[in-house]
């Protein structure tokens, strides 16, 4: 037993309260301050699961273990490989973002991306033929997460695609993502026109080998260190990667310039990276994935290890519930649209990029990136408020990723489904918006709310494992 | 008259606030059958039974239903809005409302709280308590209906961290003179209490105050802590804390339902402390308090009785006791039984009476109904009620009760549990009760002994 210390309790104690207002008022009547929680009861029936969680002896240590593993991960880009080489993907096997889904239930952007990927792989001569192959179930679909990968938006990864390989030596984890194509008409947003396929071919044949050589020269590229800097330069690491992409180019420029190709090609690579403010997204995503994967499968832990959307459903995975997905229909993001599009063009939420929020940045680090709030017409105050709220549903603060405007407080890290359900505060998610129709591409960017039901189901599932333990 | 029914999303108020608000509305002449409650299944059924057509909700909304003349509906809604907004007192935290945490754990951490008072409905209390414990805060769980499995797990977890869980079902706590829950105002002094009973502790406080002896701390344990299932985990921690506190000279244990193994354990723990420990059993709190004071080298003066020396009850009828304090009801029952008197003692604070209405220490509506029945019942020979004062209790219980008591023709005895410092004004409560014809005792044991029919 620890030494009982009543000193704080028995000398002028500071009081907080939750529940009956009259009791707090009775304390104030004595001239003593009380801080009241703005509590609201969770949905009927969930109190039992929260009580089970409260009595689960494993939970506190399990959650500490989970969140510390994620925080202490030190992911580095070690090189560029291909999906065939690294993941064994065959030509008609395709990875996609989010929880498992069939072609029949896939949304427009995912269908468009699959059509494009079939064209890239040379499995179809034109879009019609590709579409028919899909309709005839001639392709195999697998979630990126099931193969240690993540993909932004539609997240389609096919056999020949080049992938970043990200390794974390601390927890012995590895994760992959493809190379970012830029904005507008791009495969990940569901576009598959010839310019899209040509760009993907250029990435595979020219950009990837140059980056591969540059990484070999540079040595492992520390992604966590890059994020630590970019968060203090106005990025939040999900919807704003302007500073991170610039830092990447600055750090890598010498290693890239030394590649044994023409100066015209070097210049083309520099222009491509420089023209894409999300270039580094596809490195920070697998870095977050490798970090979060170290927190998987810890019995009793209520920490979220993946949040991902396939354009139809939003799904989460929780450490204490193995690889089970907890899904619900995806909401549609709200934000600003590119000229020529309207609200009815927006596809429901899509992409694995919510791995950034899972890792404690993106929407959680809004206070780093006040410029982001312009997507929703909000104020800088809103950005701070979002981050403050996220501290209510997370287990820890990441000392390696600090928020300058909050006096260098660590980012709110490790979403606890119990805290989400008990406070009814949903994770804040920043996201891009894809067009609903296959082939459209990106239509804007904004914010989106995950469905509460995913967190409620996950809570019930982990609570039930406690009973049998 | 027409029906006005609405469900408001995103508005939450606790049940006591809403019940008191509904009571205020029912006193308004323009409004009939008001219901302002959270839209739980139970409350929605209540509204349907009252004849309202209620729309489907998710359960999380606020239900507002009432009947009024069409031309005043708008005015009534405005009145309800005003009351709803008034019921949430402004606090320092309110000034930055946007950042006001919903999570008790976050709030306790951010405000560096030492103690967290938890009074959410019982099914939600265990999780809130765990959040408090993880934030390094001692929880006071006022809520009842917490599973004993949860109580045990909370207390074990807290013990690991050197924290004291007060409750569940902990009605009374005083920490360095500040009362949490139902607590009397008493100067600081040499006595420290740990207590398994809220009203039991309040009786001890009333008598200590009468003796001029101060009490600095009352650490509530909850009614089950001293059973062998819990094994006095909080009692042991509380004893150690009071022993360490240099201002405490004598420790009292207000005890009910003590398990045999737990009693041995606590007697052993008490024998190792540097300070004397006195057991105050709830079977006779007055006698126990006298012994506590004696060990502290004080004396309990004769317990005062106010009011007309009404005739002693004799022969006919039975004793009816209508109590707000559970422990006081049990004490009265034991004393009446020992004297062989036929008695019907009811604890109106028990769960079966408090579903959908505030505790009788906050609101006497139910007790007034029962008193009216008693006044018409010729088989009743004598009536006993308790009136508990202090923070958290009704601001004017005597005013609420005096007419009903005055209507009773048989002798009426009141146990008035309070101190001179209580916000209700002790003397004024005594005057109103005696003017209603009651004989008022500071001791519940004394009132019961007077009330029994010989």
Quick tags:
heterodimer; A: 469 residues; alpha+beta; v583 fold; Enterococcus faecalis V583 fold; 3 domains; 38% helix; globular; B: 454 residues; alpha/beta; Alpha-Beta Plaits; Rossmann fold; six-stranded mixed beta sheet; four-stranded parallel beta sheet
What features would you describe in this structure?
The complex is a heterodimer of chains A (469) and B (454). Chain A has 469 residues and is α+β, with helices and mostly antiparallel strands. Chain A has 3 domains: 1-39, no CATH class; 59-70 and 296-468, Alpha-Beta Complex (v583 fold), CATH 3.90.1700.10; 74-285, Enterococcus faecalis V583 domain (Enterococcus faecalis V583 fold). Chain A has 16 helices and 17 strands. In chain A, the strands form 6 sheets. Chain A has a 4-stranded antiparallel sheet with strand order 7-6-3-8. A 4-stranded antiparallel sheet of chain A has the order 11-10-9-13. Chain A has a 3-stranded antiparallel sheet with strand order 12-17-16, with no helix packed on it. In chain A, a hairpin with a 4-residue loop joins strand 6 (162-168) and strand 7. In chain A, helix 3 crosses helix 16 (452-468) and helix 10 packs antiparallel against helix 11 (263-274). The longest helix of chain A is centred in the middle third of the chain and has 25 residues, at 194-218. Chain A is globular, with a radius of gyration of 23 Å. With 454 residues, chain B is α/β, with parallel strands linked by helices. Chain B folds into 4 domains: 2-86, Alpha-Beta Plaits; 94-162, NAD(P)-binding Rossmann-like Domain (Rossmann fold, 3-Layer(aba) Sandwich), CATH 3.40.50; 170-301, Rossmann fold (3-Layer(aba) Sandwich), CATH 3.40.50.261; 305-451, 3-Layer(aba) Sandwich (Rossmann fold), CATH 3.40.50.261. In chain B, the strands form 5 sheets. In chain B, strands 12-17-16-15-13-14 form a 6-stranded mixed sheet, sandwiched between helices. In chain B, strands 9-8-10-11 form a 4-stranded parallel sheet, with helices on both faces. In chain B, helix 9 (260-271) links the parallel strand 10 (250-255) and strand 11. The longest helix of chain B has 14 residues, at 73-86. Chain B is globular and about 70 Å long. Chains A and B meet through helix 1, strand 1, helix 2, strand 2 and helix 3 of A and helix 1, helix 4, strand 4, helix 5 and helix 6 of B. Strand 1 (15-18) of chain A pairs parallel with strand 4 of chain B.
């Amino acid at each position: 037993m620890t030494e009982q210390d009543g000193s704080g309790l028995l000398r002028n104690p500071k009081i907080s309260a939750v529940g009956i207002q009259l009791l707090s008022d009775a304390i104030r009547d004595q001239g003593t301050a009380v801080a009241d929680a703005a509590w609201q009861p969770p949905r009927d029936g969930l109190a039992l699961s929260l009580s089970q969680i409260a009595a689960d002896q494993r939970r506190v240590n399990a959650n500490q273990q989970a969140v510390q593993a994620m925080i202490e991960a030190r992911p580095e880009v070690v090189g560029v490989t291909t999906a065939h080489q690294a993941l064994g993907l065959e030509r008609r096997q395709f990875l996609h973002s989010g929880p498992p889904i069939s072609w029949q239930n896939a949304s427009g952007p995912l269908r468009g991306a699959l059509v494009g990927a079939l064209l890239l792989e040379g499995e179809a001569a034109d879009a019609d033929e590709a579409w028919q192959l899909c309709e005839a179930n001639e392709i195999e679909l697998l979630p990126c997460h099931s193969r240690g990968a993540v993909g932004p938006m539609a997240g389609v990864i096919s056999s020949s695609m080049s992938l970043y390989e990200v390794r974390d030596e601390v927890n012995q984890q590895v994760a992959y993502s493809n190379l970012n194509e830029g904005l507008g008409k791009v495969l990940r947003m569901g576009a598959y026109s010839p310019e899209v396929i040509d760009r993907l071919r250029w990435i595979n044949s020219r950009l990837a080998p140059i980056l591969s050589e540059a990484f070999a020269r540079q040595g492992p590229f520390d992604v966590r260190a890059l994020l630590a800097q970019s968060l203090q330069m106005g990025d939040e690491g999900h919807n704003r990667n302007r500073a991170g992409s610039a830092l990447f180019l600055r750090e890598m420029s010498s290693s890239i310039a030394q590649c044994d190709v023409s100066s015209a090609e070097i210049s083309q690579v520099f222009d491509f990276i420089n023209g894409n403010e999300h270039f580094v997204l596809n490195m920070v995503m697998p870095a977050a994935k490798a970090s979060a994967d170290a927190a998987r499968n810890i019995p009793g832990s209520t920490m979220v290890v993946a949040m991902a959307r396939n354009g139809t459903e939003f799904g989460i995975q929780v450490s204490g519930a193995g690889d089970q997905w907890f899904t619900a229909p995806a909401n549609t993001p709200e934000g600003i649209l590119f000229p020529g599009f309207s609200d009815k063009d927006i596809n429901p939420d899509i992409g694995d990029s919510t791995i950034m929020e899972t890792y404690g940045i993106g929407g959680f680090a809004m206070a780093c990136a006040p410029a982001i709030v312009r997507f929703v017409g909000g104020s800088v105050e809103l950005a701070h408020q979002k981050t403050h709220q996220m501290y209510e549903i997370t287990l820890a603060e990441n000392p390696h990723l600090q928020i300058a405007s909050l006096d260098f407080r660590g980012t709110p890290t490790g979403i606890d489904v119990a805290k989400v359900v008990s406070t009814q505060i949903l994770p804040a998610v920043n996201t891009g918006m894809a067009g609903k129709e296959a082939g459209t591409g990106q239509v804007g960017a904004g914010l989106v709310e995950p469905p509460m039901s995913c967190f409620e189901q996950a809570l019930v599932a982990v609570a039930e494992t406690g009973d049998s333990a | 008259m027409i029906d006005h029914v609405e469900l408001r999303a995103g508005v939450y108020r606790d049940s006591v606030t809403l019940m008191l608000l509904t009571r205020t509305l029912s006193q308004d002449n323009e409004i009939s059958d008001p219901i302002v409650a959270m839209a739980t299944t139970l409350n929605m059924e209540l509204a349907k039974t009252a004849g309202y057509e209620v729309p489907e909700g998710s359960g999380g909304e606020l239900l507002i239903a009432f009947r009024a003349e069409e031309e005043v509906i708008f005015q009534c809604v405005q009145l309800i809005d005003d009351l709803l907004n008034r019921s949430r007192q402004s606090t320092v935290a309110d000034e930055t409302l946007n950042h006001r945490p919903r999570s008790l754990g976050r709030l306790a951490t951010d405000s560096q709280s030492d103690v967290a008072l938890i009074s959410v409905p019982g099914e939600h209390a265990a999780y809130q308590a765990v959040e408090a414990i993880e934030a390094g805060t001692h929880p006071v769980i006022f809520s009842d209906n917490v599973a004993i499995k949860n109580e045990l797990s909370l207390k074990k977890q807290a013990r690991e961290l050197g924290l004291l869980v007060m409750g569940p079902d902990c009605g009374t706590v005083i920490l360095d003179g500040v009362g949490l829950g139902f607590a009397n105002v008493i100067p600081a002094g040499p006595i420290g209490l740990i207590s398994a009973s809220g009203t039991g502790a309040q009786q001890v406080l009333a008598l200590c105050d009468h003796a001029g002896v101060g009490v600095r701390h009352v650490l509530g344990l909850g009614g089950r802590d001293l059973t062998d299932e819990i094994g006095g985990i909080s009692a042991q921690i509380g004893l150690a804390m009071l022993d360490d506190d240099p201002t405490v000279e004598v420790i009292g244990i207000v005890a009910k339902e003590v398990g045999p193994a737990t009693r041995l354990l606590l007697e052993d723990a008490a024998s190792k402390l540097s300070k004397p420990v006195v057991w105050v059993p709830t079977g006779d709190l007055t006698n126990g308090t006298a012994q506590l004071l004696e060990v502290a080298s004080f004396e309990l003066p004769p317990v005062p009785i106010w009011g007309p020396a009404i005739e002693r009850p004799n022969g006919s009828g039975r004793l009816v006791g209508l109590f707000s304090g559970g422990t006081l009801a049990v004490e009265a029952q034991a004393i009446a039984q020992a004297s062989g008197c036929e008695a019907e003692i009811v604890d109106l604070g028990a769960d079966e009476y408090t579903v959908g209405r505030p505790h009788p220490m906050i609101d006497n509506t139910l007790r007034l109904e029962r008193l009216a029945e008693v006044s018409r019942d010729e088989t009743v020979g004598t009536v006993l009620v308790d009136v508990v004062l202090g923070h958290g209790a009704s601001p004017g219980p005597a005013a609420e009760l005096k007419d009903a008591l005055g209507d009773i023709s048989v002798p009426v005895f009141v146990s008035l549990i309070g101190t001179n410092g209580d916000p209700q004004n002790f003397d004024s409560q005594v005057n109103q009760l005696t003017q209603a014809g009651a004989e008022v005792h500071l001791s519940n044991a004394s009132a019961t002994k007077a009330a029994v029919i010989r």
